[in-house]
Amino acid sequence: VIVAPVVLLLCAARPAPPAPPPDPAKTTAALVGGALSDGLTWARIADLTDRIGPRLSGSEGFSRAVAWAQAQLASEGLAVKLEPVKLPHWERGEERAEIVENARYGAQPLAITALGGASSTGPGGLTAEVVEVESLEQVAALGDAAHGKILFFNPVMHVAQDYGTATRLRSHGASAASKAGAAAMVVRSLATASFRSPHTGLTHFDDGVAPIPAAAVSTEDAERLHRALQTGPVKLHLLLTPRTLPDVDGFNVVAEIRGREKPAEVVLFAAHLDSWDLAQGAEDDGAGVAMVLEAAHLLSHLPRPPRRTVRLVLYANEENGLAGGTAYALAHAADLSKHVAALEADSGSGRPQGVTLLAGPGGAATLAPLLPPLAVLGAGSIVAGEAGGADISTLAPAGVPFVNVKQDGSRYFDVHHSAADTLDKVKPLDLALSAAAWTALTYALAESETTLPRAEPPPAVK
Ligand SMILES: [Zn+2]
What we know:
Distance between the termini: 80 Å
Largest sheet: 8 strands, mixed
Bound molecules: zinc ion
C-alpha cells in the first residue's frame, strides 16, 4: 500500500528503457514452440476444407474463401487488402466415357474427369477412334492420321519427381491435338496412386488454337485403354459438357507486418487460396494457406516486429490461369526491386526435409548461416531441389530470390487434383512441423542483417 506510489513515481521519472535487441535464436525458438503447440494451423485447415470446401477461381466457393481469409487475417489485428484480379470462370458439367467398339473388350465405362479450360463435346457427346501418342512432337508428326481422332497420352508417374515431364503433356497436349485436327484429347491421370480416381488439372490452349474437349482418365482405365489398343482399333464415346463463362471479379488477399527498421524491404510469403473443384483442396493448397495464416499469427504477436516487412499473400487462380500472380506482379511492379525474398508453400502438408534456394552467386553462403535454428525441424540445411512456386514465378523477371522449405512430397500426388484431396490426408504433426519451418524461415529472412544476392532473371520467352 505504501510502496506502490513510490514505484509509480520512479517509473514516471525515468524514460522507458529501450527495448532489448531481439535475439533471433530465442525468437525462432518461440515461433517454433508456438507453431507446434497452438493447434491453430490444424484448426484453420479444418475450417477452410470442411466449411468452405472446393474453391475454384470464379466460383461461389472462391468468393467465400476470400471472405474467410480476410476474416482470419483481421482476427490477428492485421489490416487486410483485397487486390483485384479478373478471374476465369470455368464450370465442370457432365462427364462420362466408355469404350464402345473393340473386338475383344466390348463396351466398358471409364472413370474420367474434364481438364480445366477444355471445351464441351455437346450434349450428345462424340465417338471417335483412339490414337495413343507419347509426345507432343509425335502429335505434330501424325499429319492426317490425327484428323477427327481422340489422342491419348499415357504418361506413367512412378514418383512425385515425374510430375514435371508428365504435366507437359496434360498442359499442352490438347492444344497440340487441336492444332493437328484431333476431335478430343485424353490423358492418363498424373498420379502416384489411384483408387480409380481421375485427377484433373489445367490444359492450356495456345493463342489462336480452338479449345477441344479434353479429360483425364484414372490410371487404371488408362492401363485398360492401353491394353485394348494392343488388340486392335478402339473407339471411345466421350460426353463432357463444361462451360466457360464470362470472367468474374476476384481478389488476392494481402496483409503485412511492417518492418521495424527497413519497412520498404519485403519478404513475401504466399500460398494459393483457390483449389480445384473436385474436392476440399486440403493438400493443394489448404495446407499452404493454413501455414501462411500461422506465420501471420505468430509474427504479428512478436514483442518487436522483424527488421523488414513480411507480406503475406493468398493468391487467386493458381490452378487455372495464374491471374493472381500476374496481377500482383503488375500492381507492385514499382517495388519489386525491394522484394528481397519470396516464398510459396504449395507442396502439401508433408514434413520438412531442408531448404531450397534460387538466388544469385553467393546465395547459399548468405542463407546457410540463418538455418541452424531450423535444424530441430529437419530444415537446417540447403538441399537440392527447385525453389519458387507458380504464383511467385511472376516475380522472377525482377530477380527476386526464391526460398522454400522442401517438404516430403512423396504422397502428395496420390491425391493432388482429385476427389481424394480431403482433410483426412493431412497429418497434424507434419503440418505443424512445416508451419513452424516456413514461419521460422520467413522470420530469418526478414530479420537477417544481410539480404540474398538477386537471382538472374530467366531468359524472355519467345
Ligand atoms: Zn497448388
